[in-house]
Amino acid sequence: MNYLDISLEASNDKVYSLKDFRGEKIILYFYPKDNTSGCTIEAKDFTALQDEFKTKGYKIIGVSRDSVKSHKNFIIKQELNLLLLSDHNEELVKAFDVLKEKMLYGKKYIGIVRSTFILDEEGTIIKEYRKVSAKNHAEQLIKEL
Fold it and tell me: Is residue 32 part of a domain?
């Protein structure tokens, strides 16, 4: 299945596929988990810089395997203004190849590697950033766009 056709539930209780955003440039960022330190930093930075991204014509969409309920709690608790998609079936994370073996406290597990993709108005990936650092990622991105 083409990544543009994968439908996911969103934090605003709607269901979207990336093809629904045709005509818009998208910053699609994948993050490991709601309400964790790195993911909170990244989400707050994207929220803070959202107007600058809009000025450059970009819509920001975050994706993790967390539930819609978790996304809503994350948005409220951290005062975010982002559209977050719930990929609990791991369809989009697999399509973008961001699910990898990771290590935490000596234990191996499968998790999302923090990654960002820039999509043009047709949904084509024009740039990708893999294994990004949460801190200052949004700022670096805005400078490059």
Answer: yes
Domain membership flag for residue 37: yes
Question: Domain range holding 82?
Answer: 21-144
Per the domain annotation, does 129 fall within a domain? yes
Q: How far apart are CA 125 and CA 29, in angstroms?
A: 12
State the catalytic residue, choosing from 8, 39, 63, 118.
39
Domain count, the chain: 1
CB burial of residue 59 (10 Å; 0-12, 13-18, 19+): middle
Q: Mark whether 90 is an active-site residue.
A: no
Residue linked to tokens 């670096």: 140
Task: Give tens-digit pLDDT for 59-118.
Answer: 999 999 999 999 999 999 999 999 999 999 999 999 999 998 888 788 898 889 999 999
Residue 103's pLDDT is 82
Report pTM.
0.95
Helices (H), the chain: 37-48, 50-55, 68-78, 91-95, 137-144
Distance of CA 9 to the CA centre of its chain: 13
* Average pLDDT in the chain: 95
Q: Which two tokens stand for residue 61?
A: 């969409």
